Amino acid sequence: QVQLVESGGGLVQPGGSLRLSCAASGIIFSDAVMGWYRQAPGKQREWVASLTAGGRTSYADSVKGRFTISRDNAKNTLYLQMNSLKPEDTAVYSCVDYRSTYWGQGTQVTVSS
User: Fold this and answer.
1) Most buried of 4, 36, 50, 93, CB within 10 angstroms?
2) Of all helices (H) and strands (E), which one includes residue 5?
C-alpha cells in the first residue's frame, strides 16, 4: 500500500523559510520520480517542482531560485526547501509519486505578517 505523508508546513512571515517533508512507503523510493504541487484557495492545483530518480530537478518559474527539491533515499523522504517566501506562496502543498499516481494529504503553508 502506497502512502505519502507530508509535514513541515506552518505559518511564516514573508521572507522566511520552511522545509517540507514527504515520507514515502509502499514504493521503491529510490526509483521514483517525485513532485511537489500546491493549491491555493479558489485556484487550480499547480505544479511546483519535480525530481527524477537520477537527480534531475525542474521548477516552476514562480519558485525558481527560491525553492529546492531534494531526496534522501535512505530515509524514503522527499523534501522541499522554501526560502524567501512570499504571501502568494500560501497554499496546501502535496507530494506525488508519478508512477503510482498516489498523492499525500497535503500540508498547509501560510505566508503572512
Assistant:
1) 36
2) strand 3-7
CA distance 51 to 64: 14
* pLDDT tens sequence across 23-64: 999 999 999 999 999 999 999 999 999 999 999 999 999 999
* CA nearest to 113, candidates 81, 80, 90: 90
Bridge partner list, 70:
79
pLDDT band of residue 80 (cuts 50, 70, 90) is very high
List Cα–Cα distances, 75 to 44, 72, 79, 93, in angstroms.
Answer: 31, 5, 11, 20
Residue 84, by phi and psi: left (phi above 0), alpha (psi -120 to 50) or beta? left
Contact (CB, 8 A) for 58 and 49: yes
- Taking 3-state DSSP, the helix, strand and coil percentages for the chain, each rounded to the nearest 5, stand at 10, 50, 40
